[in-house]
Design brief:
Radius of gyration: 32 Å
Distance between the termini: 77 Å
Order of helices and strands: HHHHHHHEHEHHHHEEEHHEE
Mean pLDDT: 86
Largest sheet: 3 strands, parallel
Strand order of the largest sheet: 6-5-7
Shape: extended
């Protein structure tokens, strides 16, 4: 190297001296690090320094992975034991709290027992609850029922329930919820305002002329009891942890576009094969050269047969990939969501006509596992290991030219 080039080289390295990177300058001057590798060496050194700083600042340098996994297993076992214990402990607490003797054949208890034992001409559900409602709620203090059934069967008495909880409240109309609210001392409304509102299919779109001035002065309800509570400024509690998805990409878009990145999600625990594989994870788009029949297709109206056939073929491929365990057919956890009812019916018909007992049995399961086919309005709250979205729609086929 000529003297001029050497002086220029040292001049180029001079900023490293002022930045305190004396070791970096020395490595370059002595040739221990080649000039062509300087940028990569700097990036590597910066990354290693950052990791070392984070380990020291957060205490991760003392992290014991084995002990941590042991603590997780211990917590999981304890949590499972608590849940198993609650199945007997909670009913026992209910029995202890009863202010009557169930073995007694006198009083209201005996009258209710005799009424329930009748084979003919007994009271209906509404009459039973009107006559023995307070006793029945003491026998079973927790009632799982739809808002419509509350209004249909329970007497219109305020304070009948200490607490009413509305789950999936974004799907419950205000008019349907009022009856249950009026019978409660307190209410908890649980739901996600970013989910779809109740469907308005087959509902009247306008008020009749007979309503007159009343329609002009009426205040229009919100879409759901959840949005009504938001507008009424009912105190809110934000639940920010997202737990369902095993791959963060399944919630990342919604988190960014709808929830303002307020959801606390976890990095994917596994990496590797894409979701198009039977044991893969994440999100993938599969294009199918199908056509959505918008008109004039008879029973195929508003369906995409080619896309439906492709989905059924993929489902069968995934069923075939699951082996038998001890001679019993294991069933993969799969859900199919369509964007309209016609496509849903078409796909389910293809599955049932496939002459496959495993598919038929999986469709008929009611334990939250197996296979389901639902349109978009009816799928909220369902969980499966793999979910297919059948959009059905396609570009309009161009008209033929002569």
């Amino acid at each position: 190297m000529s003297l001029r080039r050497w002086v220029s080289f040292l001049d180029t390295l001079e900023p490293l001296r002022f930045a305190g990177l004396f070791d970096a300058r020395a490595l370059l001057v002595t040739g221990a690090v080649k000039a062509d590798d300087a940028v990569r060496a700097f990036d590597r050194g910066l990354a290693m320094a950052s990791v070392a700083e984070r380990l020291d600042a957060t205490g991760l340098d003392l992290f014991d992975a084995g002990a941590h996994e042991k603590a997780i297993r211990r917590f999981t076992r304890a949590s499972r034991s608590v849940r198993e214990h609650l199945t007997t402990a909670l009913p026992a607490r209910v029995l202890e709290a009863r202010p009557f003797d169930a073995a007694s054949g006198s009083g209201q208890v005996g009258a209710l027992q005799r009424e329930l034992a009748k084979q003919r001409r007994g009271l209906g559900v509404r009459q039973l609850l009107a006559t023995y409602g307070e006793l029945i709620t003491q026998v079973m203090p927790c009632v799982l029922v739809s808002p419509d059934s509350v209004a249909r069967f329970f007497p219109a008495v305020s304070g009948l329930f200490d607490l009413v909880v509305f789950d999936e409240a974004s799907q419950i109309r205000v008019a349907d919820a009022v009856g249950a609210l009026g019978r409660a001392k307190a209410a908890v409304v649980v739901g996600d305002s970013k989910q779809m509102p109740p469907t308005s299919f087959a509902e009247p779109s306008s008020v009749s002329d007979d309503a007159g001035d009343l329609a002009e002065t009426a205040v229009e309800d919100e879409e759901s009891i959840l949005s009504e509570c938001v507008q009424a400024r009912v105190p809110r509690q934000w639940l920010s942890w997202h737990y369902r998805s095993q791959d963060e990409s399944l919630i990342a878009f919604s988190n960014a576009q709808y929830y303002g990145n307020r959801l606390s999600s976890f990095p994917a625990p596994t990496h590797g094969r894409p979701s198009s594989e039977p044991d893969g994870r994440g999100v993938s788009l599969v294009r199918v050269p199908g056509t959505f029949h918008r008109s004039g297709a008879g029973r195929l109206l508003r369906t995409n047969p080619i896309e439906a056939t492709a989905i059924v073929a993929e489902i069968r491929r995934r069923f075939d990939a699951v082996p038998k365990w001890d001679g019993v057919d294991a069933v993969p956890s799969i859900g199919v969501v369509t964007f309209n009812a016609q496509q849903r019916a078409y796909i389910e018909a293809l599955l049932r006509d496939a002459d496959d007992e495993r598919l038929a049995a999986a469709l008929d399961r009611t334990d939250g596992e197996g296979l389901f086919v639902k349109n978009l309005e009816n799928v909220q709250g369902d969980e499966r290991g793999v979910v297919f979205f059948s959009t059905g729609f396609s570009p309009t086929r161009p008209a033929s030219c002569r």
